[in-house]
Amino acid sequence: DVKVTQSSRYLVKRTGEKVFLECVQDMDHENMFWYRQDPGLGLRLIYFSYDVKMKEKGDIPEGYSVSREKKERFSLILESASTNQTSMYLCASSWGDRGDGNQPQHFGDGTRLSIL
Amino acid sequence: TQLLEQSPQFLSIQEGENLTVYCNSSSVFSSLQWYRQEPGEGPVLLVTVVTGGEVKKLKRLTFQFGDARKDSSLHITAAQPGDTGLYLCAGGRSNYKLTFGKGTLLTVNP
Description:
The complex is a heterodimer of chains A (116) and B (110).
Chain A: E1 4-6, E2 10-13, E3 19-25, E4 31-38, E5 42-51, E6 54-57, E7 64-70, E8 73-78, E9 87-94, E10 106-107, E11 111-115
Parallel strand pairs in A: 2-11
Antiparallel strand pairs in A: 1-3, 3-8, 4-5, 4-9, 5-6, 7-8, 9-10, 9-11
Chain B: E1 5-7, E2 10-14, E3 19-24, E4 32-37, E5 44-49, E6 55-58, E7 61-65, E8 71-76, E9 85-92, E10 98-100, E11 104-109
Parallel strand pairs in B: 2-11
Antiparallel strand pairs in B: 1-3, 3-8, 4-5, 4-9, 6-7, 7-8, 9-10, 9-11
């Protein structure tokens, strides 16, 4: 079974802090994703990585950066946390090109981040 | 920007009832995936539909992809409390990305 592990289930940080959210997958997937999930807004893509050291902005990248130094690990960084970044953060991974572009995404259980 | 509209947003029914959840867009998607998310967990894939008009069944769940690949529906027959959860549809975009609908929160009461 694919396992996507997010380092923290709950996290409380203060405004202005630099925050790191870590995600590790054990299936050798090429693609990794960071989303945030908010009531009434659904899942929104923050950043996407299709290979080590490769990244692509998603729909709402402002205030975030990412790092992918190893294939299995994808980190989301809040450079200077603000209260409007309080949210549920979900990491996901999927296969790259297998002749079928419709690969499912496998999700971690999420990190509920509160910025005070 | 491709958007997916899900309806209804909330649904509360009694055990044994049938229900249908809709996912609509003005855009064509290469595929449509359905996920279920339970409290405290991440979404889990239920099914992927790829071909216009395709119908897939998963026990009491029936998924359909519209002929024009712009819409999809999920029908649950004889709902059970274990079906409770957030149902999400997601359309395939370029580069393996997905566009998610906002979800339908289903509660099945015993």
